[in-house]
Write a structure and sequence with these properties.
The chain is an alpha/beta fold. The chain is 55% helix and 9% strand. Helix 2 packs across helix 10, helix 7 packs parallel to helix 8 and helix 8 packs parallel to helix 10. It is rod-shaped, with a radius of gyration of 51 Å.
Length: 351
């Protein structure tokens, strides 16, 4: 059998496909080489450099902004700590003020009650009652109590408010009441005279008793007419000083406080201070008796009961009650002094 040879055509479809692919590859290579040429690479490098610079600038801006935010955050934390400390301080101040307001409310209630009693007493005081009050100066020491005041003491101390209001409206009455007190004690073992600041009338008798003689009593009354040392209208200093220097377990001592107002301080604080100084003995008796006589000078000068006068009355009433004594509030119907032998009345602030 004879074999038939097939002629080969080099330009058939498969050959053309290979040639076309080869030509396309060459074209693609040329395109790639052209796109990635030196100029294009330079432009890409410039673009990348600009991008890097922009990113670096953005990074610097972000770092600065972060530092600013950190600083602001630290300041905010400091402000928060300060605010918390201030809040704690305000809480402490609020608690202190609340306690102070509570004390003032109690003092105000006590003052209101005393003022009401004083007004009632002023309205109801009759001529017969005033006559009986004046009769006390003529009474004799037949009993242990005269006019409600125990007179069993062997030593007496006068603590006299020497402020301008006392000199300006009550000094002749002060002299009269001192003489009355001395008369109800015909004889004592010793006496002393201070002002409300604790200053002695006679410095050479400071810290010791003045012997009781008729001549020395007259000397005291004579000196009292012109005696006017500085006063702060608070008997606290005179009371505490007299107790510290003269109180003794073997002596019966009475303090007589003459005053018209209590200008500053807490009534409760003064009562506590006096209680600590004038402690009681084993029998429950205080080291000294405390009596007080109130002079309504501010009512006589101003025509109304002042807050300081009410505070003085409340303080003296509490001291007398706690220390075995009596408090006598004089009525307002007396005339101011007419400068008969005493210092002229001080005008203005009475201090």
């Amino acid at each position: 059998m004879s074999k038939t040879r097939r002629s080969v055509d080099v330009f058939n479809l498969s050959f053309l496909d290979v040639v076309s692919c080869g030509f396309g590859a060459v074209v693609l290579l040329l395109v790639i080489v052209k796109v990635s040429g030196p100029d294009q690479i330079a432009r890409i490098a410039e673009d990348l450099t600009a991008t890097v610079q922009r990113l670096q600038q953005e990074n610097v801006r972000i770092v600065r902004e972060t530092q600013r935010v950190d600083t602001a955050l630290a300041g905010t934390r400091d402000a928060l700590a300060a605010a918390r400390a201030s809040l704690a301080s305000l809480e402490d101040e609020r608690a202190r003020l609340s306690a102070k307001i509570a004390i003032q409310d109690r003092e105000y209630a006590a003052q209101s009650a005393i003022e009401a009693e004083l007004r009632t007493a002023q309205q109801s005081l009759s001529e017969e009652m005033r006559r009986l009050l004046d009769a006390q100066s003529r009474a004799t020491v037949d009993n242990a109590v005269i006019g409600g005041i125990p007179v069993d003491s062997e030593y007496i101390i006068f603590i006299i408010d020497t402020s301008g209001s006392m000199h300006g409206a009550a000094w002749p009455l002060v002299l009269s009441k001192v003489e009355q007190v001395l008369r109800i004690y015909p004889e004592v073992r010793g006496f002393q005279v201070m002002n409300d600041m604790g200053n002695y009338m006679f410095s050479h008798y400071a810290g010791r008793w003045i012997p009781d003689t008729p001549a020395r009593r007259e000397t005291v009354i004579k000196r009292l007419r012109t005696w006017a040392p500085f006063s702060n209208s608070s008997p606290v200093e005179g009371i505490t000083r007299s107790i510290r220097q003269f109180a003794a377990g073997d002596k019966k001592i009475s303090l007589y406080i003459f005053g018209d107002d209590f200008a500053a301080g807490s009534v409760e604080a003064v009562v506590r201070a006096v209680d600590q100084a004038n402690y009681v003995d084993t029998d429950g008796n205080p080291r000294v008796r405390i009596h007080a006589i109130g002079f309504p000078t501010l009512f006589a000068l101003q025509g109304d009961i002042s807050e300081n006068s009410t505070r003085f009355a409340a303080l003296m009433r509490a001291l007398a009650q706690d220390n075995g004594g009596s408090f006598v509030g004089l009525n307002s119907r007396f005339e101011p002094p007419r400068h008969r032998g005493g210092p002229p009345a001080r005008r203005g602030g009475f201090r």
